[in-house]
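Narrative progress, year one. The postdoctoral researcher (J.K.) led the effort to move from monomer predictions toward full complexes, under supervision of the PI. The following entry was the first complex the group processed end to end, covering 261 residues in total.
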Amino acid sequence: MDIKHVEGRNAGKLMLYAISTCPWCRKTKALLNELGVEYSYIDVDLVPEEEEDKITREVERWNDRLSFPTLVIDDEEVIIGFQEERIRQVLKGKKQ
Amino acid sequence: MTEISREKIQEYYHKLLTEAEKAGYHLNPDLDLTLELVKSLLANEERYGYQSCPCRWASGLREEDLDIICPCDYRDADLAEYGRCYCALYVSANATKENLSRPIPERRPSKEERKKKTEKEISHPSSLSLPVWRCQVCGYLCARKEPPDVCPICKASKDRFERFF
Ligand code: SF4
């Protein structure tokens, strides 16, 4: 699967599910870049057809509405939509 | 995403703006965001053959994505409840900063729920002499054998109509 990694400081395991045409997903990536944290992301609309089911199930585990951006933190917390303040808050509390 | 020229984006933005204002809708005054969304609509048109919502995961099959072809079936309800559509391309006249700075929940039903709705639509016992069709984008109703090719009010295509009675 076409998961991209962005290097940065370790603030826990960050996985972002996004849509390539969605400005709110882009804002989320820009915020993570600005915060300088390490994260992975996947633009789900660009995955090959045969992987769509798999990625759908993966996102639905965290967000049954299958909406984007969906940011999963440390496999336990999920932030749906570009909630700038909340992302800043949660990541501030994570290990440096 | 395919590259789309600035002129094309500007041109389409002005077209949408004129149409919106004429019909009592408003585009988001945040021009950077709005132009980005307009570009995405054009990109999706190239990619899928229809202007699927930029912020949602399209299936690539028109009949499965009819409800999220922009303007989507959920725009008016979201404008009424949250002062903006899901992507915030359309905003209401009295939208506040609050409305625009926080995400709103996804109103589109899940795939299963959507399937159930279509199945329900198929059985429609009625004592009316003609069926009544409803435009799912703007709510326009008409009683005739078939829905019009395009909605006379909002210009949505024939396949955006549902049988109402
Ligand atoms: S009206 Fe808004 S939410 Fe609906 S498809 Fe268009 S941009 Fe997306």
